[in-house]
């Protein structure tokens, strides 16, 4: 058995190897195009934030804050946390940079890693990447529908097909407290049947119970009162309009009365998008989000309606791989530069630079000294022309252009080589 090297990447954290990069790039490109189309500006925030931001923003009783944060104490005694999600940091940046003074709404998008101390399993890592779209300063239900449409479109453009949108409304500070009371009394009389986590949730925030994946809790949850039956008039009308907008753009959705999402800052609309796998393999939601009208105020700003969502890059890649998606490989270089001798080697860097400036792909093997080895490499790549810079050519400022198909060789002036090659490539 081959012995594992002593150092491995930390549990639940992975390298993104060269062969994985094309998946990331594809998702990034599609997201960027859609962001530009809908007028979103890119933002990046630090990997670390003050721990307090997440305690306040996400909520102390949530699993993320209670169990999943990577927190460290600095030498100066401050507590910092590796961001478990991006909405609270982006809301912090919106406030810190006075973006409330800009014409509203402010639309921001993001692509970066997040960290959660979770039990690693299929589709669940400790470091994972998210793409994130947020709209601040707009209360219209149209925005909720647009955010859902954006995530749906991104996934469709990546060519994922069997997408399911789950949607619910979790009300606001007007109607949710009453619903919470109803939930509490429903579960209190059945407390013995709950898992130990849910017993705790019952005291801290009964809404969290609806999120529980334990089988014995699920069967109780399916009989619990539903928020949709207890929305106040404003939340009811808002939700109705969101659904009407979704109908208008013909997005298929399922009402899921028990969808609450694992973060405290949501108000009104919440949604998640899943892919119905042909193999029955399930790795959880590809993305999700909702409205968070209270978050900016909670962090010290003015009342600011807002809505957004995030999707997990590794989970999207999981589906892309499962479907065996192919990518157009970028065209291999048609030119190879072979060099012989110290002077030729020295001149090679300048030649490569001349080709780069003209945007002509050129390959090389500067570390090799033997011409035979270099030519065999050029053959493997399958280039059309090899440029050979021997000692004599380097001294005379010339270079040989060898046509690999015919074996014909021509000597040209070094300063003209880019033009000469361009001419031949156009033929
Ligand atoms: P959340 O806000 O927790 O629903 O996260 C948004 C999206 O990020 C999810 O729908 C997943 O696609 C992804 N995600 C969340 N947690 C993880 C994780 N631990 N590992 C991989 N992806 C995750």
Short structural summary:
Helices cover 37% and strands 20% of the residues. It has 15 helices and 16 strands.
Task: Explain this structure.
With 427 residues, the protein is an alpha+beta fold. The chain has two domains: 18-175 and 231-322, Bira Bifunctional Protein, Domain 2 (BirA Bifunctional Protein, domain 2, 2-Layer Sandwich); 335-422, 3-Layer(aba) Sandwich (Rossmann fold), CATH 3.40.50. The protein is 37% helix and 20% strand. It is built from 15 helices and 16 strands. An eight-stranded mixed β-sheet has the order 1-5-6-11-10-9-7-8, sandwiched between helices. A five-stranded mixed β-sheet has the order 13-12-14-15-16, with helices on both faces. A three-stranded antiparallel β-sheet has the order 2-4-3. β15 (398-403) and β16 (409-413) form a beta hairpin. It is elongated and about 90 Å long. The two termini are 54 Å apart. 34% of the residues are buried. The model has no long low-confidence stretch (mean pLDDT 94). The structure holds adenosine monophosphate. Adenosine monophosphate binds at residues 85, 116, 118, 123-125, 128, 130, 262, 285-288, 310-312, 314-315.
Topology:
Layout: H1 21-37, E1 41-42, E2 48-50, H2 51-58, H3 63-67, E3 71-73, E4 79-82, H4 87-96, E5 106-115, E6 127-136, H5 141-157, E7 163-169, H6 176-188, H7 196-204, H8 215-221, H9 233-248, E8 253-255, E9 267-275, E10 287-291, H10 295-298, E11 306-312, H11 313-322, E12 335-339, H12 342-357, E13 362-364, H13 371-381, E14 385-389, H14 391-396, E15 398-403, E16 409-413, H15 417-426
Parallel strand pairs: 1-5, 7-8, 12-13, 12-14
Antiparallel strand pairs: 2-4, 3-4, 5-6, 6-11, 7-9, 9-10, 10-11, 14-15, 15-16
Helix pairs in contact: 1-5, 5-9
The structure holds adenosine monophosphate (AMP).
